[in-house]
């Protein structure tokens, strides 16, 4: 019987009936990557108790191979008092397993530490840069960023198996001496040429309707760049085009609503809330004319690849893996709202350029089709499991 542990700081939800849910990236498809390799998968993550009437737009996790172990948040001042308890709990779990899959996070690092203690095989999934995440978070983050960067860099360098979601960026910052694979964790279904044909027709119809700009990201996360997008929209307001900014993502909209009101663009911004991953997100993207990703930090953003797979022209910042994905002519500096506004106008004033970018992004997204990534990832994970047992 093969038993694996998966550890990450993701906040999972448990209802009063014991049903497990998650928002965002985690769903049955993602966990199937691991459950097909083992008899039992113990998932370690943060936990939030919810009522069954709060599960709308969440992903229900249904695999009978998954056993979930919820941990308190250790990424806060109050959480510091729980570190020893959490580390001990994780050690008790890891010593009874065959191998650990540790996604870069505090719980992932703690699980990797336990794996080292008990001489268990460990695979690290590098999904983002801890330096960028902390540096763009707060003053406290800037203080601890150098220490955590060194800690993560040393951890990954010495890891036997490493999967990077980027092709270049994370590999440069966090090299490893072990076996490595470049493989995004995005889930893009097989792509039909009907998608790009529909996109090109949409571009042709732009003068007859409002132009929709789209951004995806939790509203509470400052590094997603909502403020940059809002400032760009304020500059565009008097340019003669009917722009709208559609914001998809959870979190409280209160601060951003107030910011939009101060800029005089409140009526131009729509907060769309959360939708389940998969088709609902793709349907939302089909209503977007230009996808914006003005982030201050990223790994290899899934949302951008999803937008590209729907033929969306895209503008993003020169951070993380974004320059690996989109045309360099549409990469701007972080916080450069004037540059963002200029690039938006450059696209909407030239339909041929929009079509060119749509086709280019659609073709590039084919590198991330699920079947191709699954085949590469499964081979690598099988090698890890074979090594574990």
TrEMBL record:
<protein>
    <submittedName>
        <fullName>Glycosyltransferase family 4 protein</fullName>
    </submittedName>
</protein>
<dbReference type="Pfam" id="PF13692">
    <property type="entry name" value="Glyco_trans_1_4"/>
</dbReference>
């Amino acid at each position: 019987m093969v038993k694996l542990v998966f550890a990450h700081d993701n906040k999972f939800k448990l209802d009063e009936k014991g049903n497990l849910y998650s928002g965002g990236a985690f769903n049955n498809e993602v966990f199937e990557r691991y459950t097909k390799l083992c008899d039992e998968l113990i998932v370690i993550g943060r936990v939030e108790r919810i009522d069954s009437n709060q599960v709308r737009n969440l992903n229900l996790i249904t695999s009978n191979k998954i056993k979930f172990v919820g941990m308190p948040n250790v990424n806060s001042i109050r959480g510091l008092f729980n570190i020893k308890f959490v580390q001990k709990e994780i050690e008790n779990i890891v010593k009874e397993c065959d191998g650990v899959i540790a996604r870069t996070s505090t719980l992932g690092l703690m699980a990797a530490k336990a794996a080292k203690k008990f001489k268990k095989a460990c695979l690290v999934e590098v999904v983002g840069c801890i330096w960028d995440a902390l540096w763009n978070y707060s003053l406290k983050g800037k203080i601890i960023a150098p220490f955590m960067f060194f800690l993560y860099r040393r951890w990954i360098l010495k890891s036997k198996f490493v999967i990077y979601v980027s092709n270049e960026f994370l590999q440069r910052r966090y090299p490893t001496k072990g076996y490595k694979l470049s493989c995004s964790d995005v889930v893009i279904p097989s792509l039909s040429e009907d998608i790009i044909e529909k996109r090109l027709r949409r571009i042709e119809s732009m003068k007859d309707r409002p132009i929709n700009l789209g951004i995806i990201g939790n509203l509470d996360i400052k590094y997603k760049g909502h403020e940059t997008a809002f400032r760009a929209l304020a500059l565009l307001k008097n340019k003669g085009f009917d722009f709208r900014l559609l914001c998809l993502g959870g979190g409280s909209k209160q601060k951003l609503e107030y910011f939009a009101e101060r800029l005089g663009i409140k009526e131009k911004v729509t907060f769309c809330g959360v939708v389940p991953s998969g088709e609902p997100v793709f349907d939302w993207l089909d209503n977007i004319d230009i996808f914006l990703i003005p982030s201050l930090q990223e790994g290899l953003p899934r949302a951008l690849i999803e937008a590209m797979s729907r033929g969306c022209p895209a503008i993003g910042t020169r951070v993380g893996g974004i320059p690996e994905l989109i045309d360099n002519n549409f990469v701007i500096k972080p916080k450069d709202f004037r540059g963002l506004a200029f690039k938006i106008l450059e696209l909407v004033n030239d339909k041929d350029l929009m079509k060119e970018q749509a086709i280019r992004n659609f073709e590039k997204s084919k590198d991330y089709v699920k079947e191709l990534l699954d085949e590469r990832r499964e081979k690598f994970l099988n090698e890890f499991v074979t090594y574990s047992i």
